[in-house]
Every structure is written in structure tokens, then in C-alpha cells.
């Protein structure tokens, strides 16, 4: 994030997969001291939580919010605007309310405490579902499935013609650039034979001719050729394989029948993927022949009914239906795709000489192209903005036509429900993709990605569903063919009152020869070769024991459990030790506000301490830095070390205060154990001895947390030339050594092994040899991210097992306190 002045922290509308929405909402409400109704709004995609932050503050906010379970992104300040988002939602809701009133139906507003009532279109979905109590009989055959009604999606040739000229602007720019470069190269080279013909050949003319031609060819390779070369060959795609016709002839027959009945382009190849995306990315010749390849995400087949999947297929094909409209779509959509992938290639050190990043003998020229390409990035961004500006009308026209093709199959009345399911599918696909990346960092992958997406979509909690419904109020990007329909698009389709062409339901999964096997095979192909295939539930579900433990901890510590191991020692002060059980609870009740503040300070002070320490280490290593990025005022080493010492003392002071308060919690625990009957007291002391076994891991957890923060900072500030290579390699080695020491400590303890901690660590954060930092920036980032994830996973596994043991003991203590009729710490409802 270096190079930017201010940043904003924006909610992605998603949560960590192991977190409950209720706990996340409560934690957010506590963190910001706001009502829970307002905290739920922070789950809305694109909502600005905090604006105009420095780089260090943005990292702190993101780290803190991720810890409570809310996923956020850091963006340049001012990129998103809450008021604009609220306005869009309100406008869409008012528009829909008017349409519903015209039809004579009543709608009920559900206000969430901030802006908004839920969309009437969303509320009508449940009523439509209840009316459809009798589903048509499902068929697995491909007899005539579509009616012969006239296609209602008319081809507006004049509209496509008007859009062609603006769509040609950017291609014309690159074609002209290529022509000028070729003309310049030819003109410069022609000087040599012309001089020979005239008898005036000299060394200067030869040098000038060859130099000019070389320069023009260099400009051609740098400016023009990437636009035509990168889209097909550079950016790595998801795992894809072509579906063989003999294995799934019924699928091919169904799509052939779809094309014949509707007039959509024919499908000549079906390419299956593990994710939920259904689209076509044809070449120019395929558009002109009206024979397209179809990329079919098996997750959509597993998650949606047959109507929904076929509606997505119809959308993907309908964008390119008709030669004139297909040409317009190819220019509009492929133009954005080419510019985006050209930008990606230059950012990731690719050139036309090496699309894979391995230049070989042409490495010097490749490096020059890459270096010069960095200066082209602002120009490419401006060209993309220009393309979007001149083709906005055409993109919206194509988007509306695609929606109408989907509605042609399922009918306008069912389009709102289809759009809601589509949004949930996109959300589930994103959750599984992110979980898959996290798992890959520790050498694991899903056994069946389509099944994982289907399970995630079916098990969305109510809060997430509401957030998705609110996110539907945001206008979609017309150039992004993967974005689900927003409320405005739903309304436009419903106004057309299209009848459903599909006469009955169909199950697409049964048309494949062996769909489960195909889903597993494509999932295995998509994972890295060194990843271990594990069951879906291991990656998607938190254990029931861990969830129950969190509930007990929330009650005992009043939602303020210790951030690390509970100190198993009573307060040092004799006066504090003399307090009874009720007096200890009363004392803790008066410290809750202070405890909450200290917990927040501890995490921020740790981040500040590690940031300053990294800055000092970089200065010592003679790496050029921006001092403000590391909370420093100068690049003087002595000053940096002095600031680091101050930050460490601040952190230790906060840590000492926290330990003092949690020592009273331990005293409360001990007093409750003493007050138990003999049999229960013996069981409690056994549980206490199990907790004591974790004390040997306290120092390891502290160091792992520090290395994790350091690696996170490296991942965000790693320079393109890897000037800090030696220091990063040092931290990689330290983190790997600490992980090995943690594993060894666990394996040397019989109590910890009996609790299954060693096997859990092997699954979640398995041992790996130390990796050398690669030479390329993106590959280096991947290695740093993997090391960071391993540290976090190891700490999380240890804390999960520890909290399960702790909660078993605390449950006994809470039961004894209730029997003694003691005044509780505080009612949870009062927090």
C-alpha cells in the first residue's frame, strides 16, 4: 500500500466461514459502540467502515475486523461512498414499490435501523415459493422440453450499428499504433537499400536505419502487440477440461435442442470448470459462425435447479446471439477483458517475449519491456476508462438482452427468484474460493468443489441472506458478465411479462454419465500438485465443540475472553487474594470497560511495535523505505531503535494490565473449584491440570503472533525489486523454526497428544521445509502469504483446543456459582 496517502476500510459483505453472524454482529457492535441494528449494516458489500486512514491504521483496522470475523478490504480513500450506496438502494426500492402498487399488491417495509426497507421484489419471492407447492415432475431425459413460442427478444440491428463505432475506438488506437510502428520500422530500414541504390551507403546510414527500425519494433512489442497477444496466452485460468461427447451425450443433445428452439448460437464445445461461472468467451470467427464454446461451472449445476442453470446458459449465449449483436458484444466485452489482462500482465512482469515469466535467452530485452511497461500502466487505465465511457450504452443494451434471454426460458415471474438464487450462488462461490486459497496455503484442497459451493449456498445464515438482499440494490457492472441481476434489471425484466418457454423441470446432474466423479476429478485438477485432498466438511465447518466452547467463554468472560492463554496464577496483592468469590466477581464487573479498552490497545500496540521493529530492521539492512509507512519520522537507525523500544514498553505495559485482570478471573475460577463438592472438585482439578499442559506453548503463541504480523506487513509492502530479500528470508526462517519448535513441544507432551492437538496441527498447519524466496515478485508474495497462513493456522488450532478444555472447566464453575446464587458478572443482554 506504499505510495498512497490515505485509505478506507470497506466491508466485503462476507464473514469468515467459521464465524456465526450473530457473534460477528455483536462483536462489531461492541467494537464501534453502536446498536446491533446499525452493526448489521456493516455487512453490506461496499460499505465504508472507516475512511481517510494512514497505511498503518488501515492494517490495524483490517487485522482487528478479520479477528472478529468480518472480512474487509483496504482501498484508496474516497473510492466508495456510503451516501451514494444508500441512495441507490432507496431509489431501487421506491421504483419497485411503485411497480408493485400499480399491480395492486401490498408490500411490507422491514427497516434495519439505518436506511432501508428490504426490496418488495425480495419479499414477493417467499410468497411465490409458497404458491408453488406442487412442483412439475422432474425429468432426466431430453425429449422436447421447450415450447415453440415466438422468440420475444427482438434483434435491434440499428442499436447494434450505432454501438459499433464507439466500440471500435480502442481497437483502432492499438491498430493505428501497430501500423505506425510497422511503417516507421519499414521507413527506417528502407534507408539502407535506398542508400545502396544511390551509391551513398555509409556506416552512419546503416546504424541509423537499423537503430530506427529496432526502436519502432520495440515500440510495437511494448505498445501494440500486448493488446492482441495477452488475452489468450498470459493470464492463468481456472482448471478446465473439455467434456467428451460420448460421456455426456444427453447434455449435448439438450443444448442442441435449446439452440434449435430459441435461435441462440450453437455450442460446439463444452468446457467444464469447478466453480459456478457459466459463460462463453468466443473468438471473432466463432461469433461470425454463431458456434460458440460454453464454459460450464459444475458448481452451478450442483447448486441450481435445471431451470436456473439453463437460464445462465441462455444468458451466456444470448450476449452473442446474431452476427451484428455478437460482433458488438465481442468488441465491447473483449475490449475490457484485453485491457484488464494487459494491465495484469505488466503488473506481474510479463511481456510478449515471455507470457509465462520465463524469458530464457531474451531475458535482457524482456526485462527492458517489463520495466518500460510499468510506466504504461496509467495509460492503460485511462484507455480502459475511455472504453467504458464510450461503450456504456452498448454494455447496458447487451446486459438487458442477456437478461431477457434468461427470462425467455423461465418467465418474467420467476426472474426475481432466479436472481436471488444467482446472488447466493455467487456469494457461495466467493466464500469457497477464498477458503480454497486459505487451505492451499497449508497444503490442502477440497475433495469436491461443486458440492462445497452447493452446501455453502444452502446453509447461509439469515444475516448473510439479508446482506445479500441489500447488496442487490447496488447497480451491477454491465461489462462484468458474472454479476447477478440487480433490482433495476429485475424490474426491467418483469415489465416485459415474458412467458416461460420451458415446459417442465429437468435435472441436469442426471444427464452426465457420472456427475459426482466428474466433480471430484475437476476439483483435484484445480488444486496444486502438492496439496492434500481433504473432506469438504473439514474446511467448511467449525467443530461443534469449538462453537459450544465459544458460547461458554462468552458467558464467563462477558464476551471478553483472553486473547491468549489464561494466566494460571492469582493476583500478587494480598488484598486481592483475600477477596471471596462474590467480591472477585464484583471487582471484575467494575473492570469490564477497562478490559475491553485494554484488549483493543493490546492488538494495536502489537501491530505498532512490530511495524516499527520492521522499519528499524529495514534501515539496518540499508533498504530504502518511506519512514511514515513504519510509524517513523526519519530513517535514522538510532531514532528508529529508540521508537521501537518505546513501542515495546507500551505493549508490555498493556499486557501487564491485562494479565492482572485475567489473574482475578483465575482467582474466581479457583474459588469456585474450592466451593464444589469433593467429587466435582476432583474432576475440576483434573481439567485444570490439562489446562496447565498448555503453559509450555504460551511463548510459542506469542512469537507466532509476532511473526504473523511481520509477514502480513511484508506481504503488503514488498517492493517490486525485492530489495528487502535478505530480511524477508530471515523472517521466513524464524517463522519456520518457531513452527518446528511448536510441533516439537506438542509432540513431547502426552497430555496434549491425548487431546489430539498433534494430529490437528498436522492437518491444519503441516510441516514443510523452509522455502527460499523466489526471484519474482508475485511468487515471493505467495511464499510470504503461505508462511503467514501457517503461523495463523497453528495458533488458531492450539487456541481452539485450549478453549475447548477451558470451557469444560468454566462450565462447572458457572454451574456452581448458580447453585450458590451469586450475582453474575453481568447479564449478556445488558452488554
Description:
With 831 residues, the protein is mainly α. It has six domains: 7-80, Ribosomal Protein L30, Chain: A (2-Layer Sandwich), CATH 3.30.1390; 85-131, no CATH class; 168-233; 236-538, no CATH class; 574-674; 678-822. It has 31 helices and nine strands. It has helices spanning 21-32, 36-41, 55-68, 82-102, 120-131, 157-167, 169-198, 203-233, 249-262, 284-289, 298-303, 306-318, 323-347, 363-410, 415-441, 449-458, 462-471, 487-496, 515-526, 536-540, 544-556, 574-577, 581-589, 592-620, 637-674, 678-692, 698-717, 725-747, 750-754, 757-764, 777-819; strands spanning 7-15, 48-53, 70-76, 241-242, 266-273, 278-279, 291-297, 444-446, 532-534. Strands 4-5-7-6 form a four-stranded mixed beta sheet. α6 runs antiparallel to α14, α15 packs across α16 and α26 (678-692) packs antiparallel against α31 (777-819). It is globular. The two termini are 37 Å apart. Mean pLDDT is 82; it is low at 102-140 and 827-831. Keywords: Membrane, Transmembrane, Transmembrane helix. The chain crosses the membrane at residues 160-185, 205-230.
